[in-house]
Amino acid sequence: MKKKFFIAFVSSFIIFAALYTAAFSFFFTEKPVVASDDKLDDQIIEEEATDDKSPVKNEILFLLMGVDAEKVSKSKGTRTDTMMLTKVNFETGDITLFSIPRDTRLNVNGKLDKVNSAHAIGGPELAVETVGDFLGVDLKYYVKVDYGIVKDVVDAIGGVVVDVPMTMIYRDPTAEPPLNINIKKGVQELDGKNAHDFLRFRHNNDMTVGYPEGDVGRIKTQQYFMKELVKQTLQPKNLLQLPSLIKTYYNNVETNIPLTSMLKGAASASKINVDNINTATVPGVGEYIGPVSYYIYDRDALNPIVSEMFGDYLAD
Question: Would strands 95-99 and 277-281 be described as parallel, antiparallel, or unpaired?
């Protein structure tokens, strides 16, 4: 396991930090990293009409990407390690997360390839186009983060309590930075470093311990972690950590979501209920085609899931 990987940007952070950050940006002179270089005032005026184009009022759909890079600003040409189609309803606080395994074999820029190559070839725009075409949904927005955000967010809130399903031990001195995972099985509070390692782990060095379902098993762990982080991030005591979360957002996030959409959702943090976070994964199986391992999706099983979760966004 030489490749770095990153767990998806947690939904709680999208609501709790990113949205609040947009509000706070009116009091600070900085502004978040966005796809456009237009001035903030011009962007807000121009994007007011964009919000009204969503088929569901007070809701937004975007592609959440974790990139294989230490800093999001240096992620050009890198593969995505995590992709989740994410839907947030600002009025109800409901969140939908649909994971797309990174080895899913799709048409990427006119060629059959792993979906995680789309960002490396054409940046977030091609990734959005590829996923939108694959799922048949009208997809415009993205949120891109680097793997360092896990450490920063978890440390900012003082750790996250999770139930580790197996003893995780893995070492790779050739990784950048070197990887040294050593986490015991059981319920425990993880700091930023161990939370990151918990999410990176797939199997030990001799492959005798790991997820039986491979990357799909790791995705389930990611989704479990996200729910726990939502629950623990939204505790009242963590409101005091807002400045740290704002700094983390500025340093680790790139998005083209309109600032007006962010501001509209600022009040929805209090409405989030972990039981209202709906998760699923693209159905399919792992398969080798020649020497390359792919995830082959099941279209017959996929279509009903997409229709149920994202029916309002199906493209004409």
Answer: parallel
**Euclidean distance between CA atoms 227 and 83, whole angstroms:** 17
Rounded to two decimals, the pTM is 0.74
Tens of pLDDT, residues 13-46: 443 333 333 333 333 333 334 444 444 444 444 4
CATH architecture of 11-156+214-313: 3-Layer(aba) Sandwich (3.40)
Identify the three-state secondary structure at position 41: helix
CA 224 from centroid of its chain's CA atoms = 13
Residues 83/99, Cβ–Cβ less than 8 Å:
yes
Q: What angle do CA 281, 285, 288 make, to 5 degrees?
A: 135
pLDDT at 293: 92
CB-neighbour burial class of residue 307 (10 A; exposed 0-12, middle 13-18, buried 19+): exposed
CB 40 within 8 A of CB 30: no
Residues 135-157 pLDDT 10s: 999 999 998 887 677 787 788 88
86-95, 199-208, 227-236, 287-296: least confidently modelled range? 227-236
